[in-house]
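Suppose a colleague, Dr. K., hands you the sequence of a protein chain of 96 amino acids and asks what its three-dimensional shape might be. Before reaching for any lab equipment, you can write down a predicted structure in token form. Begin with the sequence itself:
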Amino acid sequence: MSDQILTQILEELKQMNSRISTLESDTKVVKTNTTDIPLIKQAVLETLEVAKKIDSTQKSFERKASADLNTHEHSIDILNRRQLKLEADMEIFKNR
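The predicted structure, expressed as tokens, is then:
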């Protein structure tokens, strides 16, 4: 083989080595990035669990607040009726 062909083959081998080195480097980066995936997945699952608990707690709080509001509305209604009756009774006593 001539020196020119050997030089060309050598240059192509150098280019291939360079590309292989780049691929190996990229593969290492991908491996490094994928090692975090289980941790990220666990964090997402934990966050989802916390969000579900918050939602459940919020619904429970809303039910309790609604029940308390209904109780207070009922109490206010009773007090209003008593007040009206007392005012009517006072008016009757005034007019005697």
